[in-house]
Amino acid sequence: MNDSNDPANNPCWDQVVDENAQRVFAIAMRILGSVHEAEDASQEAFVQALEFHKRNHVESWTGLLVRFATTRALDQLRRKKAHAPLRETDKVANPDPAQRMITHELRNQLLTTVVQLPDQQASVFWMIAIEQLSREEVSMALGISCEAVSTALYKARKTLAREMSGIQIGGKS
Amino acid sequence: MREIDTNEDDARLNPTSDAALETALETAIRAIRAQEIPTDRVMGVRERARALASNQPPMIPAQVPAPVPGHAKESAMIGGHRKRYRMVSWILSLAAMLTISIGLLSLLAPPSVASSFARMLQKAKEAKTVQGLVKTRIGESPLIEGKMYLEPNKIRQELMNGNMVFIFDLKENKRLFLNRPEKVWQTDAPEGGVPQGLIDPIGQLAHAKPEGAKLLGEEMLGKVRTRVYQVSPVQLFGIKGDGSMTVWVDESTGLPTQLVIKDTDPKHESEIRLEQLVWNQPLDANLFSLETPKDYKPGQIINSPPKPIKLRAGTMPKLLGDNLHGLEFSRAIARILWNQANEVTVLLRDPEKSKPGDYQPFELIQVDLTTGRKIWGHWVLGTSTLVASPSTGKLFTVIGREIQVRNSATGNTESTLVNPSIAGTWAVSPDGMMLVTGIAEWNRKDGPQGGFRLWDLTKKAIVQTGTDQMPTTHTAFAPDGKSFVISSNSGPVRQYDATSGKLVRDFSGTRGDFSPDGNIIALASVDRSLVKEATSVDLYRTSTGEKIRTLTSNKGPGPSTVLGIAFSPDGKRIAAVDWNGEVRVWDVATGQMDPTRRSHKGGVLSVSFSPDGNKIASGSEDGTLRLWTLGK
Fold it and tell me: With an 8 Å Cβ cutoff, are B25 and A102 in contact?
């Protein structure tokens, strides 16, 4: 019953970091699109997880870190949007300029809409649609019921689909 | 553990097949998922995160028995690492203290500032080479650090840990960019030549006039004794800013060892620092070679040359149609203050839908509502909140950490205060004497932080501070000036005593505002379990903390996010606006919602009652400010 007696559920910090660094960074990178900001957001997520650990029992480090990485990065994006436009990514991934432009445009559009969603919906959408976590994993990470995850996802998708339905992709209407 | 409900409804709510998604959304999701993650950076993330445990206080104090064995094991492990790091940080702090004590700034009155500065300029102009560290920050963007090498007409910068190399030859008007990790090169010949000021801050020094130099004093930089000069104004990025340049001149060599160019102009708030400058050391000619490396392939590294922000002409409002039902702006109306009978002050920003490259700073505009005439307008960067103090006729805006106190008749800045951190939200007391700023920080060491700082505006000093775990997103002063509330995104709203700074009471909700008599506090509800698409506002009695009632609206098209709440001046009515585009009005005494539909084509960001209470102005993402006349 008490899983926390199992040493595997309470690994040392270095192990927690090693197992989750890639995922945390990937989440932040996808949301923020900038290596430097993603590095900062990742660090913030780890800081927050440590803080959380001081006060609470951590059931799933991965869940906790995914949650903090998502919320931190979205927060950062929201704050950034109040001051400055989204920046081009630091690194160029796709060599085809037309494809890159479309990708970039869609990415910006989706992010613009995601940051307007309520916190929980934005996190749920990101974790499921982009990071492809299962609903159970998300429910663990956010501490909400599976049903609430489903509802939040539905609402988020509805809003996003509505907001994005007007966009033209690559000149086709 | 949890029962997973997979009934029909659930399946309908969660379409798993891609076909169920809208095409654009689906493509966007795929695009984001396809984005390459630079895995070479994960190592750095990992190292920084690992080091965290060592900087932290013990996770569980040693003498307190750990609740579960697993925890104890972990905390002991981390404690072991900590000792080592604490030693290092102790040595570092000692070194820092030594530097500070040696480097005490002493003001001297030199015989001739101009002549000694002129000698330095002459030496700098004759320099054969310069090298050093360059650190650039523009607006809110992250700091860009790197190395810089200069020869006459040639510049090389190595940024991002040397991964990105930029070589400029001013004479040949050619630039070479190298992406080292990916082995990609790109060259171009910028139209009209490279603006020298953009890439050669040392060149700026040569343009400085010795007569304008001011000696600030002496300072020890490491082991180097320097004289600190200030030159103002300077050219930055080819634009004349109102900033200044500070130069640290090594007394032994007579040449600058450090240079800081700052520009506080909201149009291009920026800072360039050059540090540890070394002069006239021979440099390898290959550093400036424009030849493309053989094992590299051509590609795109930079998308567009950095351009200074070109400001459009200021926004001119137009009357909506031929009647007096509002104004059309070309930009979203983030805030409205209806401070005089026929005049409103609005804060404009670009709508979320505008192209990222087209973003312009915020605009603060005073408009005559009857004629649509713009009375005055100012560009303001970095402010998303605007507050007024009717008793003193002042307006307050923020650029970064600087709070500007403006004259509401002209919009001109009369004085400024510097907050210890970026002030995102603030409120001013009714007598105009106190200002409360919300804390919203994500500090690397301490994690998220909220709270407040209370300013005494007459003393221009912070008199109280309070900290909280949740970042503060909204602040409001009670009409009697004796207390204020701070709100966070997930609640609760906390009321504090303005004299003692002590917590008075918590209210459950996310955005608290007081009624004009101060007896009621209105909050955006957090409990949205009933109808998430409806706007819902809770009213609480300020003195007892008891809930009076919940005001709710009919369902909107999407989940409702309340963005603004306003009481009428007589306190009898309350208006709330949300992202669904609706303006809702209720009778405070009965809780009845005014059935008249008042809506915008985009989310509503701001709302304000007219001074006589008979009208409402609402500002929207769709660029319109609408006026609504209220019935009796």
Answer: no
